[in-house]
Amino acid sequence: MPASFTATPAMSVVRNEDFAHTSDIAAVFAGHLTSRQLPLQDSPVECAIAVEAVDGGVKLTFTSAVDAGRIGSGAVVTHKFFFVDREECRIRMHALSAEQPAATSELLVLFAEGQERDYCHASVYDAENRLIAAHAVVFDRRGRYVPYAFTEQYVSPLRLGRAALEVVRDDAGRRVARWCVGLDGLDAPERVNVAWEAAGLVHAEELLCTPEEPQLRHDMPLDDNARLAPGDWVVIATDEKGRLLAQTLVTLTPAEASAWRS
Question: How far, in Å, CA of 162 to CA of 78, rounded?
Answer without folding.
Answer: 31
